[in-house]
Design a protein that fits this description.
By secondary structure, the protein is of the alpha+beta class. It is built from 19 helices and 39 strands.
């Protein structure tokens, strides 16, 4: 271990050109900290931009290149081979006396989970747009993810050096497609038509609308573009450039006046008298910052990262306009022990409201940290990435994992990560991001607390409440709980099988490590076939997992054909009465109840083919418990209140566990209402929680078998850019073999400048397996596409029977 760390330190020293920042900065320095992320559609230039940031900040001596496979942030072999980002990578560096914790995220839709958990802990984000393509499908997805957490964003219009680049159209897209107010802070000094291409000499000069300066990038003589020169514009020295900058300043002040009342007061004051050029620069910067922090607007900057243009002003904007940890609203948490709003409750009863508390970013408070990512290292074991929201995390300290039932763990070492290279540190301060070693049971989304945190003393658990749910086998949380990470349901699966009995244990251990790293992966076992099924977010996702198992982990295993993961739903109302009576380990258990199921119809206003997202969480469960429990002879039961709570929890666990495996092909049940009634009690010795749990599961399975269940198939929205001459072939293929439905063709503002067309359609995901090869064949390789799952739709009886026959080997 010491040798490994020594070698890593040597490589790190060789890479870094200036002293490093540490996460042990004092609390008063929080105003100098920025926790930011880079989010964008695939191939927008995220990693390329990050590499320039690291070089100009003095972190690296040379600029890495994605095509050459030598970038700092994309360090996995699969990332360097494919030229794409697969997993988010964190790095810390300095700029203008500020400390930046930066996370570079993937742009492919299959790795949306990586973006989700990174965005969860960020304070601000940089959204990168392709100057030719504008706002693309995944851009809207990641923008929505950031908006869900209220994260301020700024926009960097990249690839201005490409033919067909148009920053004005990108600004229009920000307004129309992202529903945001753009604040253009820079304009090119060389004015071009909408379809013009900038030469290197023209790319080198930009005009700053905030400071009214000319920004010159020395890219002609300096190949790295490290030299940047700023000059104050005057109407006498350069009247044309000054006029362009004045127009940009006027438009900026006008846009700010719509979102910031304070700048309007300045604009109408006597000293300014309605002249945008007389508005002080610090007032403009302050207005841009206020509008950005409030998410009322987003600054827009321009550049071409590959040509080393525009990155230094982008770094300046990150420091000037994106928030510090103290600028963000205090995160809300709840004290575990209160009822979750989604759990089943007795009919007519309301769940107890969770106690919401604010977590104050203060180093003097007791520790509150959030684990947002886990990476399993072959030498170090689980490496848990955490964001500290309160207190200070010290090395060798004992932590309480409240999410895992209050289990205690020890943080043996703390690391600050530079992509794949670690450096050991003594502590992680409030508001900072770091890595903890030694945590064996911590998972993504867990809350870590100081052993003496006040919430641990206030947390309560209902008497005789089961400590773990049967559906997930997870302990019941205790203490303060921060909002977790939303995990999307998997849509593809394949069978994986060990090549020999000797490979079974290594395969199981490897799958457990992958599940710990990636919560969007699922592993299940088919009882009928005995197969182990691996589920993921897409074809590429499972392909990467397969490569890691076979090549990186050296596991002897075979993979089956990739299949689509369906959902099952009740076809019509049905009910089943069930009496459970069974002897287990010499003890008899007995319970009885009635379970009814009915389909939940999608909202009538849904016009898309994807009629609402269908996942196990969309089910509704209601338990009609009797007001007073009695024995079969009518005698009242002692301790009725506590017993009703225990019975209710056991029935809920049984129902939820059964909902994870339907009666058609064993897929999770969705969009189904479950009503439990006629719950009977046979005495405390017979009617145990285990008996009610088993009775509820068996009764639900019988009801599902009688309700004529239907299959729901995932529906994907596919965005295709193809030559106009090939549109007919693509449409015919979508409407025919793909069972698709075209939503738009050449929508307003979406026509590409090279004459190609943009087509948006929805089709069953099963019909889009292998679509990449088919589209290349139809368009002679001139088209590209992106897709995302937007919901689930019911299948026809004929389609369902075909899927059933294929799955059971009849066809």
């Amino acid at each position: 271990m010491a040798l490994v760390l020594c070698r890593a330190a040597v490589r790190l020293r060789a890479r870094i050109a200036q002293p490093r920042w540490y996460t042990t900065a004092p609390a008063e320095a929080l105003s100098r900290v920025r926790n930011i992320g880079i989010i964008a559609h695939i191939d927008a230039g995220k990693t390329t931009t990050t590499e320039r940031m690291l070089h100009y900040a003095g972190f690296t001596r040379r600029i890495g290149d994605v095509d050459d496979g030598n970038t700092v942030m994309d360090y996995l072999p699969a990332e360097r081979e494919r030229g794409i980002t697969i997993q988010s990578a964190a790095i810390t560096f300095g700029w203008r006396d500020a400390q930046l914790h930066l996370i570079d995220t993937p742009g492919h839709v299959d790795f949306t989970m990586e973006v989700e958990r990174a965005v969860r802990v960020l304070d601000g984000a940089v959204t990168i747009l392709d100057a030719v393509a504008g706002v693309q499908a995944q851009t809207q997805t990641v923008w929505t993810q950031a908006a869900r957490y209220g994260i301020p964003r700024l926009v960097f219009v990249n690839k201005m050096d490409r033919e067909g680049a148009c920053w004005r159209r990108c600004v229009d897209d920000v307004s129309t497609k992202l529903n945001a107010t753009p604040l253009v802070l820079q304009v090119p000094a060389a004015q071009k038509p909408r379809q013009g291409q900038y030469t290197p000499r023209e790319l080198a000069v930009w005009l700053d609308a905030v400071s009214l300066e000319r920004i010159t990038f020395d890219i002609l003589s300096d190949s790295s573009g490290s030299s940047v020169r700023r000059e104050r514009l005057t109407p006498d020295a350069d009247p044309q450039a000054f006029e362009l900058a004045a127009q940009a300043r006027a438009q900026l002040v006008e846009a700010l006046a719509e979102v910031d009342p304070q700048i309007m007061d300045v604009f109408l004051s006597d000293r300014v008298d309605g002249d945008p050029l007389r508005v002080p620069e610090d007032e403009v910067r302050g207005a841009v910052r206020r509008a950005t922090l409030a998410s009322r607007a987003c600054p827009v900057l321009l550049g071409a990262s590959y040509r080393n243009v525009g990155v230094q002003p982008l770094l300046d904007a990150i420091v000037d306009y994106l928030p510090t940890p103290t600028d963000r609203p205090q995160p809300l948490a709840v004290v575990a022990g209160a009822e979750a709003p989604t759990r089943a409750v007795a009919k007519g009863a309301r769940p107890e409201a969770a106690e919401a508390v604010q977590v104050r970013p203060d180093a003097q408070e007791k520790l509150v940290a959030f684990a947002f990512k886990v990476v399993v290292d072959a030498q170090r074991g689980p490496m848990v990435f955490v964001r500290v929201y309160a207190g200070t995390l010290e090395a060798r300290s004992v932590l309480v994992n409240g999410t895992q039932g209050g289990v205690k763990e020890r943080a043996t070492k703390l690391l600050q990560m530079y992509a794949d290279l670690p450096e050991e540190i003594a502590s992680i301060g409030c508001g900072h991001i770091g890595v903890v070693l030694g945590l064996k049971q911590t998972k993504t989304g867990d809350t870590l607390l100081h052993p003496q945190h006040p919430s641990l003393a206030r947390a309560h658990r209902p008497a005789k409440r089961p400590k773990a749910t049967a559906a997930h086998g997870e302990p019941e949380p205790v203490g303060l709980q921060l909002h977790g990470v939303s995990v999307p349901p998997p849509v593809f699966f394949c069978a994986v099988e060990a090549d020999s009995p000797q490979d079974e244990k290594p395969l199981a251990d490897a799958l457990a490590s992958l599940l710990l790293e990636d919560p969007s992966l699922r592993v299940s076992h088919d009882a009928e076939t005995g197969q182990t099924l691996l589920s993921g977010m897409g074809e590429l996702h499972l392909e990467i997992v397969r490569d890691r198992l076979l090549r990186d982990m050296k596991i002897g295993a075979s993979f089956g054909t990739m299949r689509v993961s369906y959902r099952e739903m009740a076809g019509q109302p049905a009910a089943a009465d069930h009496v459970y009576a069974k002897e287990v380990a010499g003890k008899v258990g007995k319970a009885a109840m009635r379970v009814a199921v009915a389909p939940i119809e999608p909202p009538a206003e849904e016009s898309s083919a994807a009629e609402g997202a269908a996942s196990p969480d969309t089910n509704e469960i209601e338990v009609d418990m009797p007001e007073a429990l009695t024995t079969p002879d009518g005698s009242p039961v002692a301790g009725d209140g506590e017993l009703r709570e225990t019975v209710l929890a056991a029935i809920e666990d049984g129902i939820r566990s059964a909902l994870f495996r339907g009666s058609v092909l064993g897929f999770p049940v969705a969009r189904t209402r479950v009503d439990v009634s006629d719950v009977q009690f046979f005495g405390e010795d017979l009617s145990t929680p285990a008996a009610y749990r088993a009775c509820a599961a068996q009764a639900l399975l019988r009801a599902l078998g009688a309700c004529q269940p239907v299959l729901l198939e995932p529906i994907a929205r596919v965005t295709i850019q193809c030559p106009e001459a090939a549109v007919g072939s693509v449409l015919a293929d979508l409407n025919g073999a793909r069972r698709g439905r075209v939503l738009s063709l050449d929508d307003a503002g979406s026509k590409a400048l090279d004459g190609s067309m943009l087509l948006v359609a929805e089709a069953p995901l099963s019909a889009l397996v292998g679509y990449s090869s088919a589209l290349r064949s139809l368009t002679a390789g001139a088209a590209n596409f992106s897709l995302e799952v937007v919901g689930f739709g019911a299948m026809t009886a004929q389609q369902q029977q075909k899927v059933v026959n294929e799955s059971r080997g009849y066809a």
